[in-house]
Amino acid sequence: MGKSIRVRFQVKETCRFISHLDKVRSFERAIRRAQLPIAYSQGFNRRPRFAFAQALPVGVTSDAEYADFHLTEYLEAERLKIALNQVLPSGFYVLEAVNLPARAEALMTIIQAAAYRIKLLEQASELPDKIGNLLAQKSIYIDKHTKKGSKQVNIRPWIYQLELNEDGTELSLVCACGSQGNLRPMDILEPLGLKLEEVLIHREALWIEMDPVRRTPIDIVGG
Amino acid sequence: MDKKLLQILPQVSSPARYTNGELNAIHKDWDTTTLKMCLAFPDIYDIGMANLGFKILYHIINQQQACLGERAYLPWIDMQEQMIKAGLPLTALESGKPLSEFDIIGFTLQHETSYTNVVKMLDLADIPRFSAERKETDPLIIAGGPCSFNCEPIVDFLDCVVLGDGEEVLKQILELAVAAKEQNIAKEELLRQLAKLEGVYVPRFYRAVYNDNGDYMGLEPLKQDLPLEINKNLVENLDQAFYPDTAIVPYTKVVFERAVVEVMRGCTRGCRFCQAGMIYRPVRERSVEVLKKQVAQLIKNTGYEEISLSSLSTGDYSCIQQLISELVQEYEGQGVSVALPSLRVDSFSVKLAEQIQKVRKSGITFAPEAGTQRLRDVINKNVTEADLYDAVESAFQAGWHQVKLYFMIGLPTEEFADLDGIVSIAKNALEIGWKYHQKGRRKPTVVVSVSSFVPKSHTPFQWEAMDSIEVLLEKQAYLRKHLSHPGISFQYHNVHISYLEAILARGDRRLAATIARAVDLGCQFDSWHECFDFKLWEQALQDTNIDGNYFANRQRAKDEILPWDHLKCGVSKGYLWREREKAFKEETTPDCRFTNCTGCGLPKCNIRDRG
Ligand code: SF4
C-alpha cells in the first residue's frame, strides 16, 4: 500500500453554488483543522497535496465527487474519512475512503463518464418527443465559451443515454466526462427547451470505464 | 430550502451568499430560545463577513442561554429584484426566518454611505422604517459601530444606539430584553430601562431644537431622568474581554478570509483628520500570550491559511516583533501565513512586512496622507520625508515592485504647493525604484491613490468646511495632469460620494427625511461607485429642502452647538479645539503613549495613570 487515500464525497444543497476553487479551499481548511499528516507542495506557497477528479459544475449537487490525498505516512483510509467528516462544513460529506496502491494513476486522467439525475421543478411539455428528436440528431452544436472566445462544439457524441422516468418528473443522463470529452449537464437543457432554474441537477456517478462493465475510481482499487 | 428560493438562486450572481450552512455558523433552536436577535450588516455578505465587531457580537448573543443570534446582509440588487418578484421578505441566514419575526435587529454603522442600505434592509424586511411608526410587535432596531458617535441623521430609523465597545453592554441589553419578553413589559418601558444603561442612547426620548435661522440648538429631553450626555462604553482590559475562539468560515471567497485577532484597540498617534483615533481611545493591548492562544484556537477551528493581526496601527503594538517571529515560526510549516493590515511609514515596518511576506506578489502600501512637511504637520501625521523615502527604499530593495501611496486632498490649509509635493514624492519614489529594478523584467511602479478629506465629528477638524466639489475636482485634475508619467498610476475617489459622506457625517435629524427620500428614488449601495447616483441624491436634498453645502462646506464657529455634542467619546471638546489651533499654527502633538499625556480629557486612561 502507498501513502495516498482516495475518497468519494457528497456535495449537498447548501454548497452547490460554490466554485471548484472554493471547494478545494474548503478541503484545504478541513485538512488543516483535522491535523492530518498531509504532504505539502514545495516552494514559497506551500499547499497541501490533494487532487480532485473532474470539476463539478456550479449549481450541481453530487454523490460522486472523488479526491486523492497524499500523506506523509500510511494512515488507515477509514480514519481519514472519520477525521474529515468531523471538520468539513455541513455541505460536504465523505461517503467512503480507500488506501491507494503505491502507483495509482492520477484521478484527473482516468475519468471517462458521468451520470446525472435532472429533477424537473415544473411540469415540462412534450419532453419525450424532444428527447427523441435530440437523440435522433447526428450532431448538436452549442456555443462553448473559452478564454479565447466562443466556439461551436458538437455535443451529440458525448450523450450516451438520456431518459425520462415514468411519471415524467426526472431525467437521467449518462455522458462523457473527462479530458477526452466533457458534457456539462446544463448544456442539454436548452435543446430540450428547459431553463436552469426549472431543474435541480445531481451527479450520481463518475466512471473510469464503461465497457464491458462500469467501474468507479474506487472499484479499481478494490480490485 | 424554500422552493421559490431554490428557483431564484441559479438566476442571481454569487448565489452562495444566500445559502447558509457555513462552517461554525451557530444554529440554535428557534422555539426553545426566548429572545431572537438578528445582526444586520448594511452591505453585501462578502463585505460583512470581514467585520470583526460583527463576529464578536454574534458569539456573545449565542453564548446567552436564552438568546439566539443570527445574521442578515443586504442582498445584491439582482437578488433584491428576484425576492420582490417572488414575494419573499429579507430573511436571516441561519434559520431562514423573516427579519420581522426577530425581537431585536442590530445594525452596524461602519460608514455614513451605508445609511440608505439600513433603510433598504428595513424595507425588504417589511418593517416600518421610522421608529415612530413601528408597533409593539415590530422588532426593536438598535445600532452600534463608529457612526453611532454622529448618528443624528439616521436616528429617526432607530430605537436605540449603542456607543463604544459593545461586548459588555450587549449582554446587559439582552438581559433586559429577555426579562421584558418574559414579563410582557411594553417596548416603551424597555426603552426607558435601556436608556439608563451606560452608553445607550434612545433618540426618540429627545427632541431636536432649532432656532429661526434653522440652526441646530441642541436636544431637549422629553422625559425625566434622562442623561443629557451619553458616555461611550469602554472595555478596559482586552485580555479579559470576550473573544470568540472560532469564526464562521464562508464557502466562497469574500473580502478578507483570515483568522483575525485584535492585537490592540485604539490609537493615540493623534492624526487630526482621523475619527477612529479619537473615538477608540485609550490604547489597550492584548498580551502576546493571550493572542497566541487565540490564534491557535482560531486556526484549529477554522483551518484558515492566514492570520491577520488587526488594529488601527498594528506597527505600534509594543511587542509586534516578538509576536510576528513567534507566529511565523510556529505556523510556517503548516502553510499558514501572517498578515499585517496597516503599515507605518518607516523602514521598521518594511522589515516586518519582509518577514511575513515571503512572496512579494502584491504591492506594499504606505499612507503619508499629505505631500509636504508643512501640511503633514498641520494634520499631525508625524511622518518625515526621510521616514517616507527610507520606507520606499527598503520596500524596493526587499524586492517589491510596486509601492502604493495614499494621500488626501482638500485638507485644511492645503495649497497647490502641497499637491506639487505629492507629485514630487511620487516621482522620487519611482526614481528609487529604478535603482533596484533596472535589470529585471518587471519595472518598478508607483501607485498614487487620492481620496478627498471629509471633516468628521469628534476630530480637531470637526469645525472645518470641506472643499467644494468644484475645488476638489480641480485638484484631482491638476494631479492627474502632473502625475501622467510612465511608471506612475493615479487613482482617485469619487468626489461626489465624499460630498455625500460629508453631509451625513456632520448632519442633524433633518436628514432622515432626505435619506428616506433617497431610498425612494432608488439610492442604495452609495459607497459602490457603480451604484452611486449623485443626481438622485441632489433630487432627494431638493425634495426635502436641505442645502447639502450647509452641512458639508460650512465653517462652524467655536461655540456652535454641534449635533454630536451629547455623544461622548471621552476626548474633550476643549482638547479638540486646542488641537485645531495648533494645526493652523503648524505645530505637532506627539503620541502620548511614547511621551507624556497630552491632556485629551479621557475620564479613564491607563496610559495617563501609568504616570
Ligand atoms: S488621556 Fe492622555 S495619555 Fe490617555 S489617550 Fe488621552 S492624551 Fe493619551
Overview of this protein structure:
The complex is a heterodimer of chains A (223) and B (611). With 223 residues, chain A is of the alpha+beta class. Chain A has two domains: 4-107, Alpha-Beta Plaits, CATH 3.30.70.580; 112-207, Alpha-Beta Plaits, CATH 3.30.70.100. Chain A is built from five helices and ten strands; from the N terminus they run E-H-E-E-H-E-H-E-H-E-E-E-E-E-H. The longest helix of chain A is centred in the first third of the chain and has 15 residues, at 20-34. The two termini of chain A are 13 Å apart. In chain B, the strands form six sheets. Chain B has a six-stranded mixed sheet with strand order 2-1-3-4-5-6. A four-stranded parallel sheet of chain B has the order 15-16-17-18. In chain B, strands 10-13-14 form a three-stranded parallel sheet, with helices on one face. In chain B, helix 11 (347-356) packs parallel to helix 13 and helix 13 packs parallel to helix 14 (416-436). Chain B has helices at residues 3-8, 45-48, 52-63, 77-86, 115-124, 167-182, 187-195, 275-279, 288-302, 320-331, 347-356, 373-378, 385-397, 416-436, 469-482, 495-505, 511-521, 534-543, 548-552, 573-584, 606-610, and strands spanning 35-41, 67-73, 104-108, 140-144, 160-162, 200-201, 206-210, 216-221, 230-231, 259-262, 264-265, 284-285, 306-310, 337-339, 364-369, 402-409, 445-452, 488-492, 567-568. The radius of gyration of chain B is 24 Å and the shape is globular. Chain A binds chain B through residues 13-19, 21-22, 25-26, 28-33, 35, 40, 44-48, 59, 87-91, 121, 196-198, 200, and chain B through 1, 3, 6-11, 14-16, 19-23, 249, 251-253, 299-305, 334-336, 358-359.
